[in-house]
Amino acid sequence: MPTSSSKGFSLKTLLPHFAGSLLFTVVAVAVAWVIGGPRAAATVLFLGALETSLSFDNAVVNASVLKHWNAVWRRRFVTWGIVVAVFGMRLVFPLLIVGVAGNMGPFSALDLAVNNPAEYGRVLASAHHQIAAFGGAFLLMVFFKFFVARHKTEHWFVAVERPLTRLGKMEAIEGALTLVILLLTAELLDGATRAEFIVAGVWGVVAFILVKGLAALLGHGEGGVARQVVSQGIGGFLYLEVLDASFSFDGVIGAFAMTSNLVVIALGLGVGAMFVRSFTLLLVERGTLDTYRFLEHGAFWAIGALAAVMFIGVRFPVPEAVTGLVGALLIVWSLGSSIRANRKAARTS
Predict the structure, then answer these.
(1) What does pTM read for this prediction?
(2) 2 is a domain residue
């Protein structure tokens, strides 16, 4: 049955959640206008809209984690998290990737981005297979971890999800499944590219294990509820930031098709990141995931689809529009299934 907390969406109830995002958008557009005129401003708006539409499933998954946090850590997610998301994952992290791919230091990569953005974009694009391997492997771990959970009793695609839950009895099965898919995908590549793809994918698995295991590591010893909240918050914070990075990788690369200005790209993708966080808090505070029981399932299926597209894309280019459409369809489908299930429950109660 729908809860009362999920009702009453109006401009008055929505504005507090999106006021910061709207303000950031105005500032970002103004800065872009000063830098590059109306064309740069329009690019920021387009990149922001694209990032938001492609990452709505990210917001649902974020909400599934964030609903277990207290108000303090939720505020930190909005404040500290957005700084990491906008400047860390969408500005600094690509610089590190270019530095590794181009065998140069971070300052040389920054100099390249500022003085020769076209070459910077080319080097970043040349590392696409490694980026796809890391991000795809991390997202596959997220996907499988949700569906192989042994305590999971509610299923959307029963024929697939129930056997996956049974597989959850096997220790670390999500890692085994991800590595098998990684190795099979690597067969599509040749020579050094294949080796780089495998290495990057293994690091994606390692990153997932480390960020998910951090809370357990910090949680050892005494400290009671307060220590548990802090450990879950730190581990969850890192988990959400790496997850956000995995969603934004292709967006960062694709943005160079519209502009080579690093600041404009960071502003545009930053606008999208702000709105994703606003949607996340809206979903948490309105109890949307509790009301629409299959919405979370749809988001994780969308994550699995994105991981598959990232892997397939190393050999066969996939338009970003297709990626966004698949994710959106899965979200809408799961929402419709939830509404029908709620109506059926209401009739039988």
Answers:
(1) 0.79
(2) no
